[in-house]
Amino acid sequence: MTALVEVRDLKMHFPIHTGLLRRQTGAVKAVDGISFDIREGETLGLVGESGCGKSTAGRAILRLYDITEGEIVIDGREIGSVTQASLRKVRPTMQMVFQDPQASLNPRMTVASIISEPLDEHTSMSRAEKRERVYDLMDKVGLNRRFANRYPHEFSGGQRQRIGIARALALNPKFIVCDEPIAALDVSIQAQVVNLLEELQDELGLTYLFISHDLSMVRHIADRVAVMYLGKVVELASRDDLYARPQHPYTEALLSAVPEPDPAQAERQGSRIVLQGDVPSPANPPEGCNFCTRCPKVMDVCRRVDPAFREVAPEQWVACHLHDPEHAPAGAP
């Protein structure tokens, strides 16, 4: 399967300015050298705790930021180094569904205006064609077309997220970044929105980067999963391999925290791994491995050398010295 999105050594550092002269004295390393591919028609889940850089990575891949370093190729076009003006031609290919539907929709615009805004910017459709396209999109996402002239505040959270999805689909994109699209919704509505995303993917052949901290939902929707910690991807594997055989200590700790409704299964999984300490600041990450300050399996080399991101099993990539033949302790996997 060919890769629709290729990300290589992507860095997104935000400068820190201090003093009267506002000199740059450091940088917040929100994304610090991540690499992965997203294949055509698949969903890549991007997971990690709050503040690890997931949302920043998603926005950087769509070039909503001018990136610090790295290479981004979407549908065969390198967009990492081009100007924002040049990106206008590529924008229809890639879209985003935002976390908070309340904040991402203009309260002064009707639903019809919100959904047709991308059509106003990027197409020369007539008013009648736009209206027909808006109705078609509302049908696709399960909204009654009679509500086209209502305003966002007249809808529930789940309906507002459907409006955001319809807007993202307006230009027939190939790639959509879903930035925690269910985090702000009631649990009863979350499954409906995720099922809608899956149906649209099957119908339209979409490719998703699904960003979330809800590991059980990622297990439901993703084909492969990338785990982020403090700006770096520490593990990347197929969904089944990652949940059945996590290779990185941080992934093991994350998965041990997922509630298990079956008591017998929970007992088989073993006790929960509780990580000690706090996540270090991305403005001052530790030397060596970013996870060394909290890792229950830390070794001396972890505090000195940043581990390479290597393939330890077919289609399973890990950045950990436990899987480095040179440094792995005896009996390590």
Write up what this structure looks like:
By secondary structure, the protein is α/β, with parallel strands linked by helices. The protein has 10 helices and 12 strands. Helices cover 29% and strands 25% of the residues. The protein has helices spanning 54-61, 101-104, 111-122, 127-140, 157-169, 187-204, 215-221, 239-244, 249-256, 263-269; strands at 3-18, 23-39, 43-47, 69-74, 77-78, 94-97, 175-179, 207-212, 224-229, 232-238, 309-313, 316-319. The strands form 2 sheets. An 8-stranded mixed β-sheet has the order 6-7-8-3-9-10-12-11, with helices on both faces. Helix 3 runs parallel beside helix 5. Strand 9 (224-229) and strand 10 (232-238) form a beta hairpin.
